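ok so for the tutorial part 2 we go from a plain amino acid sequence to predicted structure tokens. step 1 is just haveing the sequence, like this:
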Amino acid sequence: MKKLEYLLEGIKTNSVVGQTNIEIGAIEFDSRKVKKGDLFVAVKGSAADGHQFISAAIGKGATAIVCQDSPAQIPSGVTCILVDDSANALGVLASEFYGKPSEKLKLVGVTGTNGKTTTVTLLHQLFIKLGYKAGLLSTIRNLIHDKAVDATHTTPDPVQLNELLARMVAAGCDYCFMEVSSHAAHQQRIAGLHFSGAVFSNITQDHLDYHKTFAEYIKAKKLFFDGLDGSAFALVNSDDKNGSVMLQNTKAAKHTYALKSMAEFRGKVLESYLDGMLVAFDQTELWTRFIGGFNAYNLLAVYATALLLKQDREQVIQALSNLNPVDGRFNYIRSKSGKLAIVDYAHTPDALENVLNTIRDIRESDNQIITVVGAGGNRDKTKRPLMAEVTAKLSDKVILTSDNPRNENPEDIIQEMRQGVLPPYNKKLLAITNRKEAIRTACMMATPGDIILVAGKGHETYQEIQGVKHHFDDKEIINEIFGEE
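step 2 — the prediction. this is what the tokens look like for a chain of 485 residues:
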């Protein structure tokens, strides 16, 4: 329970009608979850406008309402607070309600099209190896130190977020590493949080179903950096031309990392093998269990972040060598006959290009690359032909299949992907809608030494079809098929 007047100290109000010396049991923005004595915040979302549910919230017992538009009628005994931006107010109120947990640990956010999950997961691994208690908020899982908590969004809503951070503080966590999606920044799910640092990995085409244009997508990412204060650091990949854009208006201390260009933190891939690579960070060599230039960027970002958080460089280098690959990111399975299958979450044109170029670098010249790939339904349609184009260009054979079709017809998605394939590459293509059969066909087509890339789902253990999630794990399927050899 918190006093309403205390919660309102952090937000700018335009008007307050009613009592503020009242106890608030919880903060809700979903009217269905409201209980007696709660504060309901009416947020204008992308799918629904919370102002339409003010009466329902009051009917369920809300004693206070925060909104942007004045309701036609507020019953006696209900306090109404008018603000300019209720989405922003929700984040600040949630932070106040849970005791400003982001100020009681060092919170570092990572944003970018690719690499967010790997970077935050490796930061979490690293800081535990360095002897700290740390929290993790990611697409794959949320962790309060080593205790798992279900993850439903890349970035949880402001109430969930602050509740999780408060639990991390209570558990004694010193740090929290979290993904910050463009949706979260645009929807102000991170409002009210204090970040000690922000990391930008890269930006390529994705989420245009939501942001509509690439410029708006970049702008959403940049909002995160614009909101940092002078006590924070901003670390960007200077090999990406939009890295400098992220730094333009930030008050944070500016830092850069790169593999190709001049930067404060420099890295280089020296040797690549199927079981790892030798890299040099700031001229110090280390062996890692990771493969590919994209992972070199992720590891370099982790290294730079750790140093900006005042960790001992030698301890960081030593710990980096012992980090483990992230679930669903370039995980490989070898059959008894010598076929190799790689499962990766790559679901954008750029991510597919990175993974396929890495495979091309490590394969023997006479070995084929057979790629199984689909595209998600009810998501950015413009990337579908681009995904097929880059896959056909860099693979020897391609099987287009279903990913998570959601509420779309999977055959329609495959047809949209096909449109991106240039005529010379059409002979490489097969289309098999059933994903299990597509994987089985790829395994049957492969000969010893060939590499099968199964892309798009990675860590996911389900396939969503017409709103229903069915159990489906690419790695399980591959192990089953390889076990039949």
